[in-house]
Specification:
Oligomer: single chain
Number of domains: 1
Helix content: 25-40%
Distance between the termini: 34 Å
Shape: elongated
Largest sheet: 5 strands, mixed
CATH architecture: Sandwich
Strand content: 35-45%
Number of strands: 9
């Protein structure tokens, strides 16, 4: 990869955020399994249910917000995530959108950082999730060698050449 630098330039470190929809059992599946378990309990027999799952959300859009301003992504993609699974105990056949979003590590220095997610299944609701301090600190620790390299380059620019 070293030889590629002359063609593609320097590598840029990135933090990737992946947003995937939640999976849960359908209401009808829960209801039928409760009824089946109750009937089995009443008759004194065992019951092993059959469960049907679905995506509970569907990504419409994602933003990373710092101090009430949207942080621009370096890269973003939203795509379809189909699932078709069938076993003896249950099944799931559904499709939803998921996304991947790349940011520069410097943005995680902001003390007021949160994610804003818009759900396609519930467009009137916006989900706000703060980025925990421990998570931000871990990102900054992981990228400390990169920050050191940037500081070293800045110092070289300031020092006079002899």
């Amino acid at each position: 990869m070293q030889e590629w630098r002359e063609y593609v330039g320097e590598y840029v470190p990135l933090v990737m955020i992946s947003v995937e929809p939640k999976i849960g059992e359908t209401g009808g599946s829960i209801f039928l399994n409760v009824l089946g378990a109750a009937a089995a309990g009443y008759s004194g027999t065992s019951y092993s249910g059959y469960h049907t799952y679905e995506f509970k959300s569907d990504l419409q859009d994602f933003e990373l917000i710092a101090d009430n301003s949207t942080i621009p992504t370096v890269f973003r993609t939203i795509g379809i995530m189909p699932i078709s699974i069938s076993t003896n105990f249950g099944k799931m056949e559904d499709i939803a959108q998921r996304g991947a979003f790349a940011y520069r590590p410097e943005v995680f220095k902001s003390p007021h950082l949160y994610m804003r997610i818009k759900d396609l299944k519930n467009p009137s609701k916006t989900i706000k999730i703060p980025i925990p301090l421990a998570c931000r600190e871990q990102i900054l620790t992981d990228f400390e060698p990169y920050f050191d390299m940037i500081r070293a380059k800045e110092v070289k620019l300031v020092l006079p050449k002899y």
